[in-house]
User: Fold this.
Amino acid sequence: MESHDSRVLSGYKEIASFLRVSTKTIQRYLKVIPVTRLGRKVIILESDLMGWVQDRKHNKRKTSK
Assistant:
């Protein structure tokens, strides 16, 4: 569910900073991170990104059992 007070993260640098990873890591993951592309710019809601991170953590635990 989308939160109305969720902050918009704009660009590789801001997304990378939020996740505490490099911009190169974000660029590698762009095919699976649910970003919206506006021309050459990428944006994502903070809540959507956190949901994606939680889903990945959950799926990793599920497959490692």
Remarks:
- The radius of gyration is 12 Å.
